[in-house]
Amino acid sequence: xxxxxxxxxxxxxxxxxxxxxxxxxxxxxxILGKIPxxxxxxxxxxxxxxDWQKEIEGQYAEIEKLFKNYQAEKVMLSEDMRKKREDxxxxxxxxxxxxxxxxxxxxxxxxxxxxxxxxxxxxxVYRAVxxxxxxxxxxxxFDTSADASVLYASPKQDRSDEVLEKMGYKN
Length: 171
Hints:
The chain is mostly helical. It has one domain (18-166). Helix content is 69%, strand content 6%. Strands 1-2 form a two-stranded parallel ribbon. Helix 3 (36-73) runs antiparallel to helix 4 (79-104) and helix 3 (36-73) runs antiparallel to helix 5.
């Protein structure tokens, strides 16, 4: 009878889900901010973005100048000349919008450059977090950077510096 009770008790305990799970968090913004290659990549991306934005603003200024000149001369132009000038302005506007899409669109040059420069670094961070989770036996590691929805995280559970160490960076 005792053996049967022990077997039933053991089966009942083994059927219960494990309640004590280990959790931790990292701050990916903090981690990325400590990686010189990320800072360099971000600087390159910011410079490209500023250069492209300046180019686009210059073209819009040119279009604005053409439009003002057109408005001033409109009454003196023949119907054909007005139509020609209007078409020229519209074409230039379309070209600038296409250029904007080429540079800043979802699949534009800026997105490609970010993919090329930043994604490998983010992947390296992810691999280090995964390795830390496996080695530390964590059920989950949360990210507490800017847009995360973690309302409170104990500083004792922050593993950001350990991720940096796994990646070969000393803090």
